[in-house]
Amino acid sequence: MVDAIVVLNAGSSSIKFSLFFDRGGELELDMRGQVEGIYTTPHFIAKSREGTTVSEKSWSGATQLGHDGALDHLIWFLRTELADKRLVGVGHRVVHGGLDFTQPVRVDAGTVQSLEKLVPLAPLHQPHNLAPIRRLLDRAPDVPQIACFDTSFHRTNPELAQRFGLPEELHAAGVRRYGFHGLSYEYIASVMPQFDAQAAAGRTVVLHLGNGASMCAIEASRSITSTMGFTAIDGLLMGTRSGALDPGVILYLLNQRGLDARAIEKLIYNESGLLGVSGISSDMRMLLASEDARAKLAIDLYCYRIRRELGSLAAALGGLDAIVFTGGIGENSAAIRERVCHDAAWLGVELDQSANAAGSSCISAPGSRVSAWTIPTNEELMIARHTRRILERL
Ligand code: ADP
Q1: Which atom of ligand 1 is nearest to the CA of 377?
Q2: Which parts of the chain register pLDDT below 70?
Q3: Cα–Cα distance between 310 and 298 in angstroms, integer?
Q4: Which residues lie across from 219 on neighbouring strands?
Q5: Which CATH code for domain 196-379?
Q6: 212 CB within 6 A, ligand 1
Q7: Class of domain 3-149
Q8: Exposed site from 49, 142, 174, 329, fewest CB < 10 Å?
């Protein structure tokens, strides 16, 4: 009987799942899908690895399916799907592991309690990540569940890189730079030796450019610092998030504009970034296709922020051997990669334009001092690998 691992990634309005089979070698993706719009107009879809729809369901009218209802549907669907397989475990993406969770862990009720304490550090994500864990502990207590954290990969950051210029008491209370997108960076670090063994043993900056975006400085496969900090808003301009702001801007909004904390949160998380600057869209494809000067400004600022942060991360590394593009924009937009590489010419990046346009993995010219790569990320596979590894140890 084939072993199966389910990976869940629960957000505020959707639960995504992937189903992997373990036949001994690398885990094989069998299908993936999601229940989306779980508080508005719920819709479930599951697709095979090749992209064919395997199952689909809509709930009519405005149904409050919620996380529990969505998970119950997934359990029902997977039970049928896995009738002749053995479900060995469920891996979860959890945004925050704080200081203690430096590795993925098997969760029980006690672990959930510890992870709930981190909700104030990631109020927009952590509660949603924990909802399916709690439900599954209740509905299927015998199925091992493994939590994998977006912060863990960055726990190797030196103390100095984690420190804000704030009083000790706040630092001790956990107000420090954590870094996120760790599962994506860990995956890239794990495959990097196959692409460029020398750079993998040296200094690489990975650019994870999706709706959320960050960059990570990696030395010999270990994170040494990244552009995201205490929360997932720091650093680069993103789809709807502002990225780094002078903290004085927040004080101005509070004191002079009379915005309360909720309104500021909405502004900097949902109404800023590419969307806020362009006034058109958070979607890079739409901005690249637009003739509007505001779309151009948003793209210019996006690339300028990357240029500045790349210099900063290269300085933290003390040099640079490779850069890697990943995430929806990094993997798919030759135009953005071209601009970033041209901006990084001073660091020794020389682009191979035709390789970049053709979507090759290696996009740097043969003599380039710093190599440049496009490597699709695979956070789900990383979670499935962790889940298998931990289950083998049990
Ligand atoms: P998430 O962070 O939600 O997982 P993705 O990694 O899927 O998001 O990235 C979404 C972003 O990728 C969007 O801005 C989308 O416009 C962009 N994107 C996807 N395909 C392309 C493309 N061919 N050219 C430019 N941008 C693209």
Answers
A1: 6
A2: 61-63
A3: 18
A4: 203, 222
A5: 3.30.420.40
A6: yes
A7: alpha beta
A8: 142
